[in-house]
Description:
There is one protein chain. By secondary structure, the protein is an alpha/beta fold. It has helices at 3-7, 59-66, 77-85, 98-107, 116-124, 127-133, 155-161, 165-168, 171-180, 191-205, 219-229, 289-294, 326-338, 340-343, 369-379, 393-399, 405-421, and strands at residues 31-33, 42-47, 68-73, 93-96, 134-135, 138-139, 142-147, 150-154, 186-189, 246-247, 260-265, 276-277, 283-284, 295-298, 310-311, 313-319, 381-382. It is globular. Residues 395-422 form a coiled coil.
Amino acid sequence: MKIKRLLCLALVPIIVLMVSCSGDSGTGHQSSFADSDSHPVQEVVINSNFLPGITEFEFEAISQATGIKISTTNYLIDEFFIKILAGDSDVDIYFVRPTEIRLLCEQGIYYPFESEIISDFNDRCFDYLKDCCDVEGQTVYMPISNSVTAVLMPKAAIEETGMEYSDIEYLDGYLEFARNYSGSRTAFTNGSTLFSLLENQYEHFVCDFENNEFDYITPEYLNLYESLLGGYLRYAQEPGAPAGFTHSLAQNGACHSDNVLMTIGSYDSYQDYNDSSYGNGTYNAYGKSVFFEKWRAFPLPKISDKVSGNPTSNLFAMINPYSENKEAAVKVLEEIASNYYVYGDYYTSYSFLFEDKSDYPEKYHPESEIFSDFYDIVKNGYINKYVIFTSHPDIEEYQNGRATLEEAVAMYQREVEMWLNE
């Protein structure tokens, strides 16, 4: 594969779930974590997947436990590939996503773990996560996080409407349910996020990028495109929301169980779902109990009966094969594997990795209905290793009336063809 194709990953940030942030500086912003009393004699550099100040784990605590100094950097995806293709050794652990895993494996760039602790940790994870970590029978990656975006509904709204899952199982039913509702509640969504997640369904279950077989000029994709992207700029509806919905980005006012018909969200955003009002249309996150007691979760609507799983957002750890500190890097990952919930930070604090429900701590409220909902959704998850990175200029052309539906989708078809052939 050409290096050019590897570097094209930098064109557009990953849109998922949901859900993730990339570093905004490729200058190698570095933060260090060390226990000043233990005088660590080894150092490990981790390339974080997030903005400076937002981390996957409590690295200072890990440093104290291991006696290993930990520093983090925030290289962007294109810089990451430049460095690893050049054999740079200054980063010891990279946190990567499935698309990068596929590209690295195609280049034969990986380093097998020789750690029983990490192998045992991976064995506890859902099969699709574990499978993603193995290359030619060797353990090469370690799952760091796993999450999904789901349709969220207050129990009171379910009781009021008599809604059953079959009513919203497919996209057309999901949209009609909101549009036909005549009560006082509001259906919220983020149209661009939902479109990206359902487009992911199409590209995973309908397209075959590995064999260069894909076609977007189909009834399924045309319906998805028109249903979620049609009209709201041209006809002055609220930007970002298909007809029948109100756009929700910052969740202000979109999480009060007395006001909401349905919305979309993830398990780690529990603090947004509360019933404490400031009195000005926004709501104060005063505690967790409302989310776990008053809400239910359902899988995202399917675009067709070809869909048999739910899109997940994942992060994996890998050892840089060119690192000069492999032994220390393995020790750091072993400490995380041994005490995963002790060190979980911003992005990993409510991750769903494990097959056994008993592995989840009390903070997950494993006795709640919504925990079981999310667990079942995640268990039936899938990993899409072919995420298309294009700027999707066709959407603006379509929404502003400069292209018909068919013309816009044909434009995207050409974009994908060019992307895959680079």
